[in-house]
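Table S2 (continued). Query chain:
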Amino acid sequence: MGATSKRVVLIALVVTMLAGGCSGGAGRSSVPVVRAPGGFPVKLATANGRVEIPRRPTRIVSLSATATEILYAIGAGAQVVAVDNESSFPSDAPRTGLSGYTPNLEALAGYRPDLVVYSSEPGRLGATLQRLGVPGILQPPAASFDDTYRQIVELGEATGHRTRAADLVEEMKEQIRQIVESLPRFTDAPSYYHELDESYFTATSKTYVGEVYALLGLVNIADPAGDTADGYVQLSGEFILQQDPDIVFLADAGCCRQTLRTLAARPGWNQVRAVATGMVVPLDDDLASRWGPRIVDFIRSVAGSLNSLPARPGQ
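Corresponding output:
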């Protein structure tokens, strides 16, 4: 991104990003699918290969907090019988001790699922589900907005809620467009540091969260620090002080209790512009780490913080 960030640039960017991944009539996001005239059986091309769902599932188990949020957002909540121990939203989801990272297959089978959704492939979960004759859909962490939209549509197809899923995608795109259009104008694009933990691990613009910040016209101080395969790097305290970011976003506010006060107590950090001006923004841990429908809430919270960003001297 260039040194300046004007409204026309932001709007052009959001139009480009939100238009991606659309195909078919009416600009709807879609996934490769073959379905019978009545809706089921349905055959999906998923991240774990071709999956056939013989009938509308009524005993869904979600081993992904993001998938849980998607299922409830598209109206499939009544079909969910169990969710993993990380699924904290919505609060009335049937949360269990099941782990999405180290699933107990015996405990999982006890729920008699007719569909399992998961975000990682620990052990041989997929192969075990296939052997048991239980359809399983792998939805790995999204790398882009396109991935989010595709996963929503995919679960809509898999659960019999394709219309609501497609509508949700369009609603999200429209809400994000409105948020971007409402942004304040900046002569220079503000710089930011997104803190994942106290050892200065952070995300570059090549990550999903980095894409969110770029959409809002912010410049990531971590981008020049290195080019890693996954987009995550560990900075040094000296590097951050030299970059002197305008804003610090704390993704470790909840887990690690990091605040403006704790940052100011770090050696030299009281001179960092973001700390000196109070532009240290604590993030909701869940919103900052999930890629489902509530990404709109995350974008809105980040955009809201920009309204109080002080002007640089001379502006």
